[in-house]
Amino acid sequence: MTDQKLLLRALGGETLPVPPVWMMRQAGRYLPEYRATRAQAGDFLSLCYNPELAAEVTLQPIRRYGFDAAILFADILLLPQALGADLWFVTGEGPRLSTITDAAGVAGLRPVADIHETLSPIYETVRILSRELPAETTLIGFAGAPWTVATYMVAGRGTPDQGPAHAFKAADRAAFSALIDRLTEATVEYLSAQVEAGAEVIKLFDSWAGSLKGADFDDFALAPARTIITALKARHPGLPVIAFPREAGARYEGFARAVGADCLALDNSVEASWAAARLQPDGCVQGNLAPRHLVTGGPDLVAETRAICQAFSNGPHIFNLGHGITPDADPENVHRMLEAIRG
Amino acid sequence: MTDQKLLLRALGGETLPVPPVWMMRQAGRYLPEYRATRAQAGDFLSLCYNPELAAEVTLQPIRRYGFDAAILFADILLLPQALGADLWFVTGEGPRLSTITDAAGVAGLRPVADIHETLSPIYETVRILSRELPAETTLIGFAGAPWTVATYMVAGRGTPDQGPAHAFKAADRAAFSALIDRLTEATVEYLSAQVEAGAEVIKLFDSWAGSLKGADFDDFALAPARTIITALKARHPGLPVIAFPREAGARYEGFARAVGADCLALDNSVEASWAAARLQPDGCVQGNLAPRHLVTGGPDLVAETRAICQAFSNGPHIFNLGHGITPDADPENVHRMLEAIRG
Question: Relative to the CA of A11, which of A4, A250, B5, B330 has its CA 20 to 30 Å away?
Answer without folding.
Answer: A250
